[in-house]
Every structure is written in C-alpha cells, then in structure tokens.
Design a protein that fits this description.
DUF4136 domain-containing protein; 8 strands; two-stranded antiparallel sheet; signal; 5 helices
Length: about 210
C-alpha cells in the first residue's frame, strides 16, 4: 500500500476524539487486503442527499492526504445524467485505483426510561438518641427523621445512526472491505465522521486488512 495511505490511517487513529461509535459488523475479501493494494489515488464518496453534508463528510475524510480526492469534484451536477459506465470511465481516465464510500444505512430512534433516584439527606446527629434525644432540640430530632429527596424518572430519546463504509479496488473492480458502524449522541457531523473512520481502521487492523501498529 502507498505510504501516504498508511499515514492517513495512522493520523485518523491519533487525531480522532472519543465517541459513542462502534463496529456492528464487517467483511473483507479473504483473497485480497487493503494492505496489498497499491492505492495511489482514491476517490472519497459520501452517499448523502444533502450536498452540504456530502461536502463536510468528504472533506473530513480527505483532509490532509493528497491521494484522497472528494467525489464532488468529479461526480456532480454535470455528470448526474451519465450512465454508470460513463462515470466509471471518468474515474479510470483520472487514474483512480481505489474508492472509499460512506452512506447512511438507517436512522433509528429508541426511547428508554431512566429511573428516578432516591437520596436520604441526614441533618443533625444521633448522639442524643439514648440520652434524652428530645433534650437536644430540633437538630437532633430532625436528624432522626432525615428528609428524603426524590428525583423523578424521565424518558430519554436516543437516535442511532447506522453507517456503511466500503473500500473498492478499481483495478480489481471489486469490493475488498465493508463495515457497518453505529453512532449515538451525534452532535457534530465532522467529529462523527472522524469516529467512524477510527472504528473502521481499528477493525481493519484487527482483521488483518491493515498491518498492526
């Protein structure tokens, strides 16, 4: 594999922040690994309807690595009516040898109940309990009947985003790796993309698609 591509994956590992993102499942072609491919120019494709989100996602993956090129530079409004074969020819003419795609598979909302909490607050002391508790005034009396505070339970809605990441070899014209991730508590698209790539790289190291650290 091209050193710059390996460097990209290393940068992803160390620059990504923690997130509620994890691998759900993955598959690799047992006959070929990403490490065996000599990727010199890779197209990054975010398959989303919103153009702004597409650009944010593609720019985030491609940032800082010269072999990664965003798809909106090559596949855009001017090419949308072309056939699949014509689009593929564009990539071949531009000397792309690899493609990374990312697409939202599903978005699911789950509502869970968070139980309330019970806290017993203690005031005063027990020192007068056996020596005339009532003679110690209100503080001791109140301490024996410490007030109880209850925070009521509530319902919490969590949205899970299932995202599929694929790596294709154009030279072999085949899918060589795919994985699905689940992300929760998404607040920033860019950070979530980082977290997804971090989870993907970790899984690829685990299954042998990438060399170990």
């Amino acid at each position: 594999m091209k050193k710059s591509l390996l460097l990209f994956f290393v940068v992803v590992i160390f620059s990504s922040c923690g997130s509620n993102t994890s691998i759900v499942n993955s598959w690799r072609d047992p006959k070929i690994t990403v490490a065996q491919e000599n990727f010199k120019k890779v197209l990054v494709v975010a398959l989303v309807k919103d153009e702004a989100s597409r650009r944010v996602t593609e720019n985030r993956i491609a940032a800082g690595n010269p072999i990664f090129k965003t798809s909106y530079q090559y596949l855009n409004e001017t090419t949308k009516d072309l056939t699949k074969e014509q689009k593929l020819k564009i990539l071949q003419d531009e000397n792309f040898d690899g493609v990374i795609t990312m697409r939202l598979v599903s978005k699911e909302k789950e509502t869970t109940y968070v139980p309330g909490t019970y806290t017993g607050m203690y005031y005063g002391g027990f020192d007068g309990m056996y020596t005339g508790m009532y003679g110690y005034g209100f503080g001791n009396w109140y301490g024996m009947y410490s007030p109880n505070f209850y925070d009521p339970g509530y319902y919490q809605e969590t949205t899970s985003y299932m995202v599929e990441t694929n790596i294709f070899s154009l030279k072999e014209n085949k899918l060589i790796w795919t994985g699905t991730t689940e992300s929760q508590y998404v607040t920033d698209l860019g950070q979530t993309v980082d977290a997804i790539m971090q989870a993907v790289v970790k899984e690829m190291r685990k299954d042998g698609s990438l060399p170990p650290k």
